[in-house]
């Protein structure tokens, strides 16, 4: 995770005319900001956190995986039965969508 100096640099960079697009990904809960004794959500300073758009991601469920796999099978011109799609969807729910597609 980034320390307080990195967050300071990011704040300054985001205020420039040519501000970059910064994507941060974390699964941390409330934790200490490195280099300080401050505890904040995701280990990110509150002043930077206020400027972020937080997008929560959730894993796909079995029906969503089956729908994605059926679309992929149509595009690849692969014939799959509903039973096969259901089994592959269950495997994808246990492992990952990438694994199921492979």
Notes on the protein architecture:
The protein has 102 residues and is mostly helical. The protein has 5 helices and 2 strands; from the N terminus they run H-E-E-H-H-H-H. A two-stranded antiparallel sheet has the order 1-2. Helix 3 (62-75) crosses helix 4. The mean pLDDT is 90.
Task: Give a quick summary of the entry.
It contains five helices and two strands, in the order H-E-E-H-H-H-H. With 102 residues, it is mainly α.
Uncertain runs are none
- Strand order, biggest sheet? 1-2
- Characterize the overall form: elongated
Q: Give the tally of β-strands.
A: 2
Distance between the termini: 32 Å
Strand share of the residues? Answer: 5-15%
Mean pLDDT: 90
How much helix, percentage-wise, in residues? 40-55%
Structural class: mainly alpha
User: What is the count of helical runs?
Assistant: 5
The SSE string, one letter per element, is HEEHHHH
Please supply descriptive tags for the structure shown above.
102 residues, mainly alpha, 6% strand, two-stranded antiparallel ribbon
Task: Show the helix and strand layout.
Elements: H1 4-14, E1 30-32, E2 39-41, H2 46-49, H3 62-75, H4 82-94, H5 97-101
Antiparallel strand pairs: 1-2
